[in-house]
Amino acid sequence: MISLKNVSKDFNNTNILNDINLTINEGELVRIVGSNGCGKTTLLKIIAGLLKADGGNITYGEGCNIGAVIENPSFIENETLLYNLKFLYNLKSKFSYDICKKYCDLFSLNIDSKIAIKKYSLGMRQKAAIIQAVMENQNLILLDEPTRGLDIDSMNQFDNLVKELKKEGKTIIICAHDGVENINFDRIIEIKKGRIEE
Fold first, then answer.
1. Digit-coded pLDDT (tens) for 100-129
2. How many domains does the chain have?
3. Which Gene3D superfamilies match (predicted)?
């Protein structure tokens, strides 16, 4: 699904990622761990195309369609959840109310609520972010601390969602310190001093 060869990234003359070589196969469920500032989020941003690597190459599998939750998700703050999901969905494909409602119901969000996103709690925003990362049948899903702000019930629903996506053959990369202990990962990768360790 995706292959990184000799990928590196520096910020302000500080090396964050150093000669990263990593292949993740189609359908794999991978967790990336590491201390704060080790480069996990930077790696996801590079994979997602949000950040350009200073060196190395990235190869994507044919038909790769990326969905992502990276750092603090951005929304059109004065608009509703439905407006935001519809806006994002229509950027690449025709909006499906039924699909979005299915995921909103899973996380106990009212898709027809008239409340603006700016009034959502951290947990509600996080659930909305997860929904937009999977609602278009994306096959490479990148999740950075996805359980942040979620309550116990929502964490359980997130676990179930990941299991379902795995059954569907999706490739999933999760960077998380905690909250994912009940997920059966195929691999756990650690980033230490800018390098990959398995």
1. 999 999 999 999 999 999 999 999 999 999
2. 1
3. P-loop containing nucleotide triphosphate hydrolases
